[in-house]
């Protein structure tokens, strides 16, 4: 159990995409996010009180969340130094990086000496089965994307919340470190051995008979050369009845790969449907979610309307404009209405 409240770490980050874990917690769990820690050369903020480690502990913080996502998930020297200082001030450490806290001798020694806890959120469960593709009861929606970090987690959480407000049972199924910290449960999918990816999703989204929905957080993109393998296994294991495509309309290229252009919406829709049909031949797309956070409101609304007209699918920025039109399509889709 990771103790809360959290102090959210920004460190030396300058790219907003690199602090997505800290930002996700600040947005969706403000009740347990007490402040932010950043160095003077960090131009970013979560609009939380800026605190050093001692002040955060005095204010009630119990865990420093290293909520950044750098290339390769590395635990750099600056992070180690800051984590050591945070433990000395009385804080436990939680991290979703690929480089485990418990693999760094200096952190392990300090934690033992100071009585602190190290939480590696990206450690998968040891009992993950191999996927079998058997049809299981329940209704499932999966978010997919043209790229990684385009808003799949935000969209999934917004859909889950909106379904609950309509009085429908809905569960957010986390598949990444940020989602796990928000939900308190889930599977760190990109840390699962490849043969077990689909089985991990079958495990985290089991059969359900309560007429509710599993809203499964997507990962990566079928068009990202680095992460398409995770996206493929997720599509197979999720066995989704419905897909929502997430897209950043102002991104110039695949994240981290300037030599790869972003794929088009039409080709991404087609590719995800083809892959998903292996385990659910009746899968449908019910909406398009745009990340318009860098656009003016009038421009963003106009773009949503344009894409909606082009593809005949409800289109919105879920966090900015809501997901009601997408939910209307989801619940009115003939195939799904028959089992709703």
TrEMBL record:
<protein>
    <recommendedName>
        <fullName>EBNA-1 nuclear protein</fullName>
    </recommendedName>
</protein>
<dbReference type="InterPro" id="IPR011669">
    <property type="entry name" value="DgcN-like"/>
</dbReference>
<feature type="domain" description="D-glutamate N-acetyltransferase-like C-terminal">
    <location>
        <begin position="130"/>
        <end position="327"/>
    </location>
</feature>
<dbReference type="InterPro" id="IPR035086">
    <property type="entry name" value="DgcN-like_C"/>
</dbReference>
<dbReference type="Pfam" id="PF07755">
    <property type="entry name" value="DUF1611"/>
</dbReference>
<dbReference type="InterPro" id="IPR035402">
    <property type="entry name" value="DgcN-like_N"/>
</dbReference>
<dbReference type="InterPro" id="IPR027417">
    <property type="entry name" value="P-loop_NTPase"/>
</dbReference>
<feature type="domain" description="D-glutamate N-acetyltransferase-like N-terminal">
    <location>
        <begin position="47"/>
        <end position="124"/>
    </location>
</feature>
<dbReference type="Pfam" id="PF17396">
    <property type="entry name" value="DUF1611_N"/>
</dbReference>
